[in-house]
Protein 1
Amino acid sequence: SLWHSPELLSDIQDGYSVSGHLLVCFSSGYFIHDTLDIIFNHQSRSSWEYLVHHAMAISAFVSLIITGRFLVAAVLLLLVEVSNIFLTVRMLLKMSNVPSPALYEANKYINLVMYFAFRLAPQAYLTWYFLRHVEVQGQGAFLTANLLLLDAMILMYFSRLLRSDFFPSLRKGSAGRDVDGEKFLID
């Protein structure tokens, strides 16, 4: 959407493209499906952070779909999915006990770069934009609050990633670990 319509970036509040709208609709459906999957498969207790994140995303995206405003902000936030590719590769390598430590090491650094480029940078930009340019009432206030909560979650996840991959000696004791000795979101 951004590739084909880069002019969208000049109007975060009212910019519109059909592909961006469809992307937000599709992503909303994904978040609803994943939420129901977590609930119906009785994973709510271990995945409560995902449920909070999904509830925030669903409510924000539905408000964007209904009002037609801030569509570009949603598209920018969905850049995070690029980073998820490398987080998923990381998880799969850990689950398979990493047959190639060099592959894990390479992905570890790529993952860090992608985290900055596709999670932290868009999130920081949108937070700055909303705090500086968006009215602090109605939908703007709601979306700003959502962004600030997402900021806290992203920074918490980032600190976990850094501790796990770059500073393992700083990891906490065994509290909060599952039967394999690892907590999914930490490792």
Note: Residues 14 and 68 are 7 Å apart (CA to CA).
Protein 2
Amino acid sequence: KSANPQWREQFDFHYFSDRKDMLDIEVWRKDNKKHEELLGTCHVDITALPTKQTNCLELPLEKHPGSLLMLIAIAPCTGVSISDLCVCPLGDPSERQQISQRYCIKNSFRDIKDIGFLQVKVLKAVDLMAADFSGKSDPFCVLELGNDMLQTHTVYKNLNPEWNKVFTFPIKDIHDVLEVTVFDEDGDKPPDFLGKVAIPLLSV
């Protein structure tokens, strides 16, 4: 019930060299659970923004009244990574020992915001649902922790895909839940949902 909403949400998008350089933003209005209406879109060219500083942007919505006020900062990725299973981080025993010392009980209050990190090895899926007419799917996996999101590559025409990727997330809230969702890539259309699992960090 507001024409001037304030969200005050922070999202971290992990920007890698193989991703596109445009940030696409959509604003939606929700009447109830079934009815949604697009209120406008805007786009930000990431490559045109200065790095290592916070950029305050007022973005007019295309073909609709209104604008968005955003703060966008581009900085080197820290604490997050995607790697292959064969070059898995933390594989070195000396590195694991350094990490154990860093997060031991006596160092708990050295940096309150540095809670720790989560490493997830996404190996494979088995017996997925067929989403294509050919009886196959083009599955990829999306991992979400808080407002952080990373995803695997797509394995085409396969109901038993193997990704063998290692994802590392910084943990900002120990009460967060890791959500792992499998989608079927569908060209220019929105991906089809194939399944989901939620894992509370406190259960790990």
Note: The chain has two domains: 22-74, 81-203.
Protein 3
Amino acid sequence: MSKISKFFKGGGSAASRGRGAPSPQEALARLRETEEMLSKKQEYLESRIERELAVARQHGTRNKRAALQALKRKKRYEKQLSQIDGTLSTIEFQREALENSHTNTEVLKNMGYAAQAMKKVHENMDLNKIDDLMQDITEQQDVAQEISDAISNRAGFADEFDE
């Protein structure tokens, strides 16, 4: 099987093939490696373009054929550079989408854990008991308010005398 068909048919590492799809971390690591490799290739092509441009200038009008060849190579390198730019954009988009999907999955998992925890907390609670408890609390607050009002009223000894 050729390398290209292995690539498109998912001929990855033995660990990945044995259990199906790679984990998000593995896929992100591979995408980052590919981005890094393409960035290095970009740098290489940019240096080659500069070199071919220097060769073309060097030959200038003295050796037109060599200058034209250098310019043709430069044009090929620029085309390759343009293709790499497009590929990098696609890989960046895919990496960002995968990161967002992974984040959403983690958030959803955590929300599920929180829902289970809330269910467990509320497991022993009965709405009737809660209503009774809230009524008791309200009654006790009313009693406390009456006591507070009674204490805070002035003794009123002077007010009770009638002239």
Note: The chain has a mean pLDDT of 85.
Protein 4
Amino acid sequence: CCTTGCHRTFHLPCAPDGECVTQYFGAYRSFCWEHRPQQALQPRPSQDNTCSICLDTVEDKISYKTMGCPVCQDARFHRRCIQRLALHSGIAFRCPRCLNQEPFMMEMLTMGIRLSKRPPSWQSDQEVGPSDQRHGRCDAATCLCPGGREHAEADGPWQLWLCSSCAAEGTHRQCPSLGNTKFTWECNTC
């Protein structure tokens, strides 16, 4: 933790599980769960506690897992939803409700949301052209399939699983050791 006098340490990949915040700009500071920045938003009436992105229920108060827009004070979203939106929106990242960009983006950066400096994923897809083809290769660092990265079976260890968030990357069930009990997989980008 970068707060003076706090001696807590944590691995960067473990930070989200411990509700720690890492700011991906400037000095790239990290804060423990006790000293992390907090959003100063007013409580909402309890009749509309839905995520502006996935439309599932969110907590009725601002917390590590439930965030809000500092501009419109109306939008609420899950941290994981706004993080996915930030990565896919790239330089077009803005509040999904009021469409504010600058103050909203600065607040999200302060709260530990990582942004991408590339064009939005939907623009990149349009430049390439519409595609009705499914992603068809294993993108694991080490592909274990004897048939190669492009080999895929309908079921079993060489079934190709696509990222449950973006479907832009895939892996054989056996390559990341998903086993038979896991039903979804998410790529490192998401």
Note: The mean pLDDT is 84.
